[in-house]
C-alpha cells in the first residue's frame, strides 16, 4: 500500500511539473550578440550587449520569451584606428541608423516555437527596432545550456535608411546592404 501511494505521488508530481513551463534566465555577461554589416567594397562587425533575456520551456518547446538588446552598447571590432572607429560607432548610434538616443533598446518577443528535435527548433517572434515591429522566424540550436542562432535582419523594414538603395536612387558605390546579420550565443543560468 505504501508503495502504491509513493508511485501515485510520484506520478502526480511528474505530471504537474510537465504542465508548468520552466523559466530560463539568460546570463547576459556570458552571452554575446555579434553584428555583421556589408557595403560595396567592404564590411564591418562588432558587438551589442544583451540587457536582459528569459524564456519559458514546456515539453521541450520555448513557449514564451523576451529579450532586450541595449543599443547604446554598439561597438566595432574591425577598425583599429580609434578616431575612425568612434566615428563609425557614433554614426551607427545616430538617427541615420539606429537613433539610440530616442530608441535605446531593441526587443525580441517569442510568439511561437517548434519542439526541439536533435537540438534544433524553429522560433517565431516579433523584433522591434526604432519603434517598428516585424515578425520573423529562424532556427535555434541548443547545446547543453547554450543556445545559438544567426539572424538576417532587413534594416529597411525598421526605417534604417542611410545608404539603402531601398529608399535612395543613384547611390552608386555608396550603397550599404539592407541585410545585416546577428550571430547570437546565449548562455543560460
Could you please describe the fold and organization of this structure?
- There is one protein chain.
- The chain has 189 residues and is α+β, with helices and mostly antiparallel strands.
- Strands 2-3-4-5-6-7-8-9 form an eight-stranded antiparallel beta barrel.
- Strand 7 and strand 8 form a beta hairpin.
- Residues 164-168 have low confidence and may be disordered.
- It contains two helices and nine strands; from the N terminus they run H-E-E-E-E-H-E-E-E-E-E.
- It has helices spanning 2-19, 82-93, and strands at residues 22-25, 32-39, 42-58, 61-70, 105-113, 120-129, 132-143, 146-154, 179-187.
Alpha-beta classification: alpha+beta
Strand order of the largest sheet: 2-3-4-5-6-7-8-9
CATH class: Mainly Beta
CATH superfamily: Lipid/polyisoprenoid-binding, YceI-like
CATH topology: Lipocalin
Total strands: the figure is 9
Helix percent band: 10-25%
Spell out the key features of this protein:
single chain; 189 residues; alpha+beta; Lipocalin; 8-stranded antiparallel beta barrel; 2 helices
Summarize the structure.
The protein is α+β, with helices and mostly antiparallel strands and 189 residues long.
Topology:
Blueprint: H1 2-19, E1 22-25, E2 32-39, E3 42-58, E4 61-70, H2 82-93, E5 105-113, E6 120-129, E7 132-143, E8 146-154, E9 179-187
